[in-house]
Amino acid sequence: MQDIFFNDWDSLLRILIVTLVAYPSIIILLRVSGKRTLSKMNAFDFIVTIALGSTFATVILSKSVSISEGIVTFGLLILLQYIITFCSSRSQRVSDLVKSAPTLVVYRGHLIRANMLKERIDEDEIWAVLRKGGHSTLEEVDAIVLETDGSLSVIKEIRDTTAPPIKKLS
């Protein structure tokens, strides 16, 4: 029964030391890897985040995993995430492989039920995002889009596509 509440001081000391080394290490690696690592998550980002958390917990609690093994694992996961995001920002093919495309669920006051069913979005979610934006009817917005990170974006007004594009400032 004593094992449930307390094993020994060595175990607690190990957890203290490992946490004090592993935690700053993962923070440094995440900061070096850039903002993209901690951005709103798509499925790929979610997997990396879960893997980092699982590795962190294993390093802290498992005596069979050394701090150096954990730090190498952190670095490798972050490096792989960096490589994938680097490639997906430069290749549409890679981007399509790791990210889903946005999906139109409301257009000009009409629910697109086929897309809602496919993406498992119910009407209550549509109404919630409308209310959050201060809208009371579907007709007040031109579109609602399910974004790649799972959030719903409300587009109040679709711009005229015949207008000339805005030139990029140098």
UniProtKB/TrEMBL annotation:
Keywords: Cell membrane, Membrane, Transmembrane, Transmembrane helix
Domain YetF C-terminal: 90-159
Family annotation (Gene3D superfamilies): bsu07140 like domains (3.30.240.20)
Residues annotated as transmembrane: 12-30, 42-61, 67-87
Domain YetF-like N-terminal transmembrane: 16-86
Chief place where the protein resides: membrane
InterPro entries associated with the record: DUF421 (IPR007353), UPF0702_alpha/beta_dom_sf (IPR023090), YetF_N (IPR048454)
Family: Belongs to the UPF0702 family.
Name of the featured protein: DUF421 domain-containing protein
